[in-house]
Amino acid sequence: PNPSRDYISVESKNSRITSLELFNLEGRRIMYVPSSDTKLDLALTELTSGPYIVKVLMENADTEVFTIIKE
Fold first, then answer.
1. What is the dihedral of CA 15, 7, 46, 4, to 10 degrees?
2. Rounded to two decimals, what is the model's pTM?
3. What contacts 39, CB < 8 A, 6 or more positions away?
4. What per-residue confidence (pLDDT) applies to 46?
5. Cα Rg of the chain, angstroms
6. Which segments within 1-71 are labelled E, that is strand?
7. What is the C-alpha to C-alpha distance for residues 15 and 62, in angstroms, rounded to an integer?
8. 13 in helix, strand or coil?
9. Across-strand partners of 39?
10. What is the largest CA-CA distance in the chain?
11. 3-state SS class at 61
């Protein structure tokens, strides 16, 4: 759900996720999570409240970018 309080789940139906990056709105990378699965859960408990940009890289070279709001 967005906004989210504790975690987000990212799932790809077409390809495995190779990594997830989390950025603040200034463009600084806050988190990098390597992966080799089709689903990834990301804990947000250590983050301060506010908006963040999530960039998900897939094995087939696709990239998904979306914004989340941490409550």
1. 120
2. 0.90
3. 9, 10, 11, 12, 17
4. 93
5. 12
6. 7-11, 17-23, 29-37, 39-43, 50-58, 63-70
7. 9
8. coil
9. 11
10. 33
11. coil
Q: Are 44 and 5 in contact (CB under 8 A)?
A: yes
Residue 26 DSSP SS3:
coil
Angle at 18 between CA 20 and CA 45, to 5 degrees: 30
What pLDDT is stored for residue 1 in this prediction? 56
pLDDT in single tens digits along all 71 residues of the chain? 578 989 999 999 889 999 999 999 999 999 999 999 999 999 999 999 999 999 999 999 999 999 999 99
The single-letter code of the amino acid at 5 is R
Q: How far is CA 33 from CA 28, 51, 56, in A?
A: 15, 18, 10
- What is the C-alpha to C-alpha distance for residues 71 and 50, in angstroms, rounded to an integer? 7
